[in-house]
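Limitations

Structures in this collection are predictions, not experimental determinations, and the ligand pose is part of the prediction. Treat each record accordingly. The example that follows, with fe (ii) ion as the small molecule, is included so readers can see exactly what is and is not provided: the inputs are given verbatim, and the output is the predicted complex.
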Amino acid sequence: MFNPSQDTNVSSSVYDGRAALQELDATKSGVRGLVQSVPVIDLREVDHAAVVANVRRAAADWGLFQVTGHSVPQELVAAAQSMVRTLFHDADGGEGTLKGRLYSRDPNKAVRYNTNFDSFESPVTNWQDTLYIITDPEVPGALGELPKNGRVLWLRKTFEAHAGYLVRIAIRGTWPQGKLLGRHRLQSGPDMLACHYYPPCPEPEHAIGMVRHSDWGFLTVLLQDQIGGLQVLHNDTWVDVVPIPGAFVVILGDMLQMVSNDNFTSCEHRVVAKRTGPRVSIASIPTQAGSTRNYGPVKELLSHTRPPLYKETLASVYRKHCASIGLGNKGVHDFQI
Ligand SMILES: O=C(O)CCC(=O)C(=O)O
Ligand SMILES: [Fe+2]
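Predicted complex:
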């Protein structure tokens, strides 16, 4: 069990059955207490140190958690979801349409739309379309062709202001020695939105919404609607990330695993296909496109008994590697020493 007062080595615990029983006993919740549920962290909690400790525990035990009590109003969350669903994905596609014009597999296009970015690399096809939006207005073409630009810009601002804050708090919470963060700036903020669309699936038992994978970057912040389907792998069991209206889902990625030298591990997650829908989710993903520094295990975490487990790499190199092997293959293994 993770001990929040311990600064390093959070992943090397040995399962202690008696301690687990005592813990269950202490919850006084009976066997229902055995049902695993994804941690939910309420930012309205007045004790800030408790919030940070909860984030650390959730990150170490699950690699994924939900955040409520952030300051993004529910109506704005709903407006963002409906903009993505109705203004874009539900609109007709094909030659001559906006969707047709944006359909592209060129990762350098600031706004692009496609079915499965890795169709030609991955053996599995997801039941999913995605609209990618680079939200940095400095990037040529960013937002340009989208309808209702104002709302997309608003969406960017919302994510960058609020998700950026969550990313910072989550990193501070997950990072073993918070003060190191200043010197090891991990990510500058979200600069790409991946707006996923999962239409109702006639045969969900023969399909997958999004195949099992871990995210390549440091952290992903995700907004999902009420349909459900996102699951996280926890203790070899797939656990539903039950939708909470307006909550952000925070997901630890591979780069965090590498720089923390396995003190934290990126979580595997997937989306199951459903007969109901469509489902929409909006993931904010930092692309680290302009980053020129090499990332590797942070020196302060290393010793002669804890040698570095990963080679140093540019974020862009790691990202390209992950794209080249397709979702479903954990790229970190290829960077092990
Ligand atoms: O749609 C979802 O809930 C998950 C999306 C996801 O895992 C991703 O964008 O990496
Ligand atoms: Fe993901």
